[in-house]
Design brief:
With 340 residues, the chain is of the alpha/beta class. The chain contains 13 helices and 15 strands. Strand 14 (310-315) and strand 15 (318-324) form a beta hairpin. The longest helix has 27 residues, at 81-107. It is globular, with a radius of gyration of 20 Å. The mean pLDDT is 91.
Length: 340
């Protein structure tokens, strides 16, 4: 497989104005924790009180020790509310530590955001909106937009105490024209979303966990995902993400493991119905991602992962992958080099 052929397909995806799907692998190059690092953080920091918490957490730790990833270790287990609150708080703290460090880097103009470069170039067209669907709590996508002066919406009105408005509630204008906007659909919540003691949903652009009467609105892996996401703001966010996925003319998936039942069924449906082009980039493609490419992605796909000093590329003519010497094709900067 020639690099020219890989670049040609990457261009096809880019020219299709793709809906962008971000998983944890999209944030890790910026220093944000992997699911494995989050597992280790929870195991190191979480302190149980009482037999109920201790027994439930032991089941989770045992599953992790047996090789389950964090979502599998938590899924299907009934955990006490007090233990759940500790997991949510520690998860927030783990991600926030790295997110805060990235803010400092971005503010000093020292951060390189390949996503920002991509979004900026996508707007060199007649596009008015770009959709980014992400499972991440961090603010990497927001920082990437800021790095190139691109406006974004996550569903909250601007301000220090941000009111939940949904993404259609606030409009931006530049002069007499509607502004171009990136709509970021954060289906698992965000570090700056909170539920108040009186059941209000607010956005607080903070980098320290606020007082206990503010509960972080993040959906932790596994056990409470589908219960929590039946309520706003998640219900509205997921509906918006569904619409973006169902109408996509192309997909660019970055570091996404195809383990999330909120997202990948819609991608499968779109690829099967319309055979839209899709590119999946990851340092290491998960088994679920490889199965998607091989059996569910249609005939218009490309998957790329790291392989030694080069890359391994999956295409319909090479469903089990083929080695190419070109390094970093699996990364977003590598993809940008092919299309920008």
């Amino acid at each position: 497989m020639k690099t020219e052929d890989i670049a040609k397909f990457a261009q096809t995806c880019f020219q299709g104005s793709p809906t962008i799907v971000l998983g944890s692998g999209a944030s890790m190059p910026h220093g944000l924790p992997s699911m494995g690092a989050l597992s280790n953080y929870l195991c190191d920091k979480l302190e149980t009180v009482g037999q109920a918490e201790e027994g439930a957490w032991l089941l989770v730790r045992t599953a992790l020790a047996n090789g389950d990833h964090l979502e599998a270790a938590l899924e299907g287990k009934t955990l006490p509310d007090t233990l759940l609150a500790k997991i949510v708080g520690l998860t927030w703290q783990c991600v926030n530590e790295k997110d805060t460090a990235l803010l400092g880097l971005a503010a000093s103009n020292g951060g390189e955001f390949a996503l920002g470069c991509l979004l900026s170039r996508m707007f060199n067209s007649n596009l008015r909106e770009i959709h980014v669907v992400t499972t991440n709590y961090d603010r990497v996508a927001e920082f990437a937009c800021n790095s190139k002066g691109v406006l974004f919406q996550t569903g909250f009105a601007p301000g220090y105490i941000q009111k939940w408005e949904s993404t259609g509630g606030v409009k931006f204008r530049h002069g007499s024209k509607a502004s171009r906007v990136v709509k970021i659909w954060k289906v698992h919540g965000s570090l700056d979303w909170f539920r108040t003691a009186d059941e209000r949903t607010v956005g607080l652009p903070v980098f320290e966990l606020p007082p206990a009467e503010y509960t972080p609105l993040i959906v932790t892996p596994g056990f409470n995902k589908y219960e929590t996401t039946s309520q706003d703001p998640f219900r509205t966010i997921i509906n918006g993400a569904d619409d973006a996925l169902k109408t996509a003319s192309a997909f660019l998936c970055i570091g996404f493991g195809f383990r999330d039942l909120h997202i990948h069924p819609k991608i499968i449906e779109r690829c099967r119905e319309r055979n839209v082009p899709i590119v999946v980039l990851a340092r290491t493609l998960t088994d679920e991602a490889k199965d998607f490419l091989k059996t569910k992605a249609g005939t218009n796909y490309m998957g790329v992962e790291m392989s030694g000093t080069g890359s391994r590329v999956y295409r319909p003519e090479a469903p089990d992958g083929v080695e190419v010497d070109t390094a970093d094709l699996w990364s977003l900067p590598g993809f940008n080099n092919l299309v920008l």
